[in-house]
Amino acid sequence: MNASKAHIDFYLVGIGNHAVPKWDDAILALIQQSTVFSGGKRHYELVKPFLPANHSWIEISGKMEALIQKYKTIHLPIVIFVSGDPFFYGFGNTLQRLLPHAKLKACPYFNSIQLLCHKTKTNYNALKTVSVHGRDWSALDSALINRNELIGVLTDAKKTPATIAKRMLQYGFDNYSITIGEALDGNNEHIEKLDLLACTKKEHDRLNCVLLNQITPKDKPFGIPDHAFVPLPNRANMITKMPIRLSTVSALQLQNKGVFWDVGSCTGSVAIEAKQHFPHVKIIAFEKRTACETIIQQNTERFSTPGIEIVIDDFFNLNLKDYPTPDAVFIGGHGGRLKELIHTVHQLNPSARCVTNAVKESSTNTFVEEFTKLNYTISTTVIQVNAHNKISIHTAEKRSK
């Protein structure tokens, strides 16, 4: 690596898990020409023998604001040691976010998922990579619902290979094998391929990542048959019928949305159908019937739809600010308080797109009148399924100024 005439604020040097770092002459020269270094505690232990005697070290310990302020006091280039590739769920992304005008130069090593693919001779042209390291399950859930054939997962101490395997089996994703790479490039490197059930019974080195390989395809129907859902006891017809459900999900226009609330979720049919088609969306199913908690959960597992948050309580008793603000809302039930619910949603997010399915004329009138007063545009589609009542699917969207 030739020294750049342009000033560089941060050199990001990737290192592997070797007992002795493997660098080329250009990196070694950069280290000898520098005086200020940074990285985690483990990185310091690995690289300290290579640093100049008069060096200073800034530890990266998780307190990002204090770290960035410390960086700002330094007027020399800083060499930062990172694991693998700094722009693969790495510190390079953090620097770009917190110091967007800083000048960076990357000297990456392979990331752990790449290494595992290399070592297992896996073609990773179609690889989908996700991280559950210090994160929720949403990215992995989305990849599974999308039926990605090869998924690389960065794990952590809680979301271990065993925990991942258990969750996959819980939601019916038994059509994958799991390959675990432990301490890759280290003295204790170990790689093994397991079926998911066997993986649930094993512990692995905390420094690991996994590959999920699809063995057989898993069907993903466009529209779930009504009879397939676990129903309310003795109320099998209390479900949004499939044609109505699909039209409702279409009306919500979730493709560009981030958070969807299904209010009055009942069996969870609309939430599940929405998650099947738009797995990237954070979905919260609100329902006050206590019996529905088990029913919704059973249905999410039955239709391989992880990631739906279930809230069992009277919607009007909740502190709604405790939940992510919705940009789409389906009003499946309102307990005779539709007007109040409309104004509650409007106050939370005036730009939220709202949809309801109305049988009664009174519900139609309230929805149209209240949203019109609030300067929303109303559109309506009327559908009748077999001998059932006609359903008016109403959509309210804020008028652009």
Would you identify the CATH architecture of the largest domain? 3-Layer(aba) Sandwich
Please summarize the sheet with the most strands: 7 strands, mixed
Low-confidence stretches: none
List the strand order in the largest sheet: 13-12-11-14-15-17-16
Fraction in helix: 25-40%
CATH class of the largest domain: Alpha Beta
Number of strands: 17
Total DSSP helices = 13
Helix and strand composition category: alpha/beta
Characterize the overall form: elongated
Mean pLDDT across all amino acids: 94
Number of domains: 3
N to C succession of SSEs: EHEHEHEHEHEHEHEEHEHEHEHEEHEHEE
CATH fold call of the largest domain: Rossmann fold
Ordered list of secondary-structure elements with their pairings:
Layout: E1 10-15, H1 25-33, E2 36-39, H2 41-47, E3 56-59, H3 64-72, E4 78-83, H4 91-98, E5 104-107, H5 112-119, E6 128-131, H6 138-145, E7 150-154, H7 161-170, E8 176-182, E9 190-195, H8 196-199, E10 208-214, H9 242-252, E11 259-263, H10 269-277, E12 282-287, H11 291-302, E13 308-312, E14 328-331, H12 338-348, E15 353-358, H13 361-373, E16 376-384, E17 390-398
Parallel strand pairs: 1-4, 1-5, 2-3, 2-4, 6-7, 11-12, 11-14, 12-13, 14-15
Antiparallel strand pairs: 7-10, 8-9, 8-10, 15-17, 16-17
Helix pairs in contact: 9-10, 12-13
GO biological process, one term: methylation
Pathway: Cofactor biosynthesis; adenosylcobalamin biosynthesis
InterPro entries: 4pyrrol_Methylase_sf, 4pyrrole_Mease_sub1, CbiE, Cbl_synth_CobL, Cbl_synth_MTase_CbiT, Cobalamin_biosynth_MTase, SAM-dependent_MTases_sf
